[in-house]
Amino acid sequence: MNHRPLAPAGLALIASALVALGLIVVLPLAMVFHEAFRQGAGAYLAALSEPDAWSAMRLTLLVAAISVPLNAVFGLAAAWAIAKFEFPGRSLLVTMIDLPFSISPVVSGLVWVLLFGVNGWFGPLLQELGVRVIFNVTGVVLATVLVTLPFVARELIPLMEQQGADEEIAAITLGAGPWTTFFRVTLPNVKWGLLYGVLLCNARAMGEFGAVSVVSGHIRGLTNTMPLHVEILYNEYDFVGAFAVATVLAGLALVTLILKSALEWRHAGELAATRRH
Amino acid sequence: MSLSIENVAKRFGDHAALDGVSLEARQGEFLALLGPSGSGKTTLLRVLAGLERPDQGMVRFGGEDLLTMDARARRIGMVFQHYALFRHMSVAQNIAFGLQVRPAKTRPSRAEISDRVEGLLSLVQLEGLGGRYPAQLSGGQRQRVALARALAIEPRMLLLDEPFGALDAKVRRDLRGWLRRIHDETGLTTIFVTHDQEEAMDLADRVAILRDGRLEQVDTPEQIYEAPASAFVFDFVGDGVQAPGEVAGGVLTVEGWRTPAPVGALPGPVTMSFRGENTDMLPPHAEGVPARVISVLRRGGLSRATCEIGGRTLVLEAPQSLAAPGIEVRLAPRSYLLHPR
């Protein structure tokens, strides 16, 4: 890198970027906290300790805890297959993985209702079996899994394609079996991309609104996730409550970011060594 | 243990990468597979390594049928053109990999592995660099690590796929002598793929020349150079010129020059091949293939002239009297080869 004094044009560009960032990221975030604490810390804490708010937080964490590992495994498997092998239907698979990105989250929710709702394809069967999917935690998980499906795979496919299969082939000629090759060569080579994909996936899983809103039924204390709970409280003019829950969501996002930076900082040496290829 | 390849063929779609190749290599032999890109040499190497399954043919090694064995079970060391080092592992971890992945029963102890790694590091002259990562090494160093990694598993045979292809000329030459020394020290049967004829001729005990999935010639470098089996081989292994000619009634005619045909030359269209170093440049009234001097390069007391013969060029030493661009000359090859056209 060369450090030259900045030209006025450079300064102007940086300044405008900072202003834009302040206006569309920092200001709204500050507003969330400002509104949450409008009536003091006491009201803030009271809003958070409300049982329905608690339940929404627990459900959000539960949904993320189920859907993120699922999509991490799926994304890794899909990226591995797509990047390391040639097979018929490969590009179709890539398109399918992208599909959840391109369809509206509301549709991603609605498909589950059409499949498993009372009037859906499998509705009567499920009713007979006494299984509820829609207006239930299961539905919320399904909708979240669908919406967050591409994150890990999308992060890993270009990375794995760029790395090629040379190292795996070398491992095999050195006597390594398929699992050994995967866990000792393939996985370590993509661990940073995987981590990044998981963090993105997690952020979306916790924040998803549209798809979850369709399948959840907004049953307080049962099928309400944090984003849904924020909306309910807001619609009931409980601004402190709504923004208090929103601060928790924002806090989770910040924790995710800090986690990522901490990992990058701790492994800076290794990152520098392996990325300079 | 000797290697025997019999009638191996491999197709990719419509393209025959290998079209019935039979080849033998003795225990401890250094064999080069030489050919232009697309000639099938890398495919043949991958068949030996177990990375490609041939459509037909046999590959035996020390009496064992290699084709029935998995790549991982063959214990054949392989070195790749782009090194294929494990980028997230240090040099020492790379070298130790093949030993560490062995099943517990046959895996050497930690101390043995680290001894072996040290020994290999010194064999490839990288002492003290065991803690570096591949990205922190030069290309030549990386390829030496790759070789050490392949040798760590005590392979029964060593395969090298254009190992110096990604390196610059000076490093290539240095590594060449070094690779030959390692081969002589370990006594491993070594198969080496390259498209660089100089590299193959310099290094190998024998050179196998491939073209379009078929073997053109397998011989010692001297034989290949002195007695190429075809016009293709002649052209591939050295500088020279090839001119179309005709043998009829015991007379060879090339570019209007008529000379008695060699004993045993079959009548018909032929390609006459000769090299500049075996050719004398004579004045225009002498016997020889008519040619014209295009340019002259003087270095010290010698002049090297580029001559044009029927649209083709040949570089050879020129006597002072003829070393002038534009001059008409005759080229008299002291030795030449005829191949049917």
Name the overall outline of chain A. globular
H and E string of chain A: HHHHHHHHHHHHHH
Instruction: Flag low-confidence runs of chain B.
Output: none
Distance between the termini of chain B: 40 Å
Counted beta strands of chain B: 20
Largest sheet of chain A: none
Please count the helical segments of chain A: 14
Side-by-side strand order of the widest sheet of chain B: 6-7-8-3-9-10
Which radius of gyration of chain B do the C-alpha atoms yield?
A: 25 Å
Helix content of chain B: 10-25%
Helical segment count of chain B: 8
Shape of chain B: elongated
By helix and strand content of chain A, what is the structural category? mainly alpha
Beta fraction of chain B: 35-45%
Distance between the termini of chain A: 18 Å
- Element order, helices and strands of chain B? EEEHEEEHHHEHEHEEHHEEEEEEEEEE
- Quaternary form: heterodimer
Q: Biggest sheet of chain B, open or closed, and with what strands and sense?
A: 6 strands, mixed
Report what the structure shows:
The complex is a heterodimer of chains A (277) and B (341). Chain A has 277 residues and is an all-alpha fold. In chain A, 80% of the residues lie in helices and 0% in strands. Chain A has 14 helices and no strands. In chain A, α7 (137-148) runs antiparallel to α11, α10 (178-207) packs antiparallel against α13 and α12 (226-235) packs antiparallel against α13 (239-266). Helices cover 25% and strands 36% of the residues of chain B. Chain B starts with a strand and ends with a strand. In chain B, the strands form four sheets. Chain B has a six-stranded mixed β-sheet with strand order 6-7-8-3-9-10, sandwiched between helices. A five-stranded antiparallel β-sheet of chain B has the order 13-12-11-14-20, with helices on one face. In chain B, strands 15-19-16-17-18 form a five-stranded antiparallel β-sheet, with no helix packed on it. Chain B is elongated, with a radius of gyration of 25 Å. Chain B is α+β, with helices and mostly antiparallel strands. Chains A and B meet through α9, α10 and α14 of A and β6 and α4 of B.
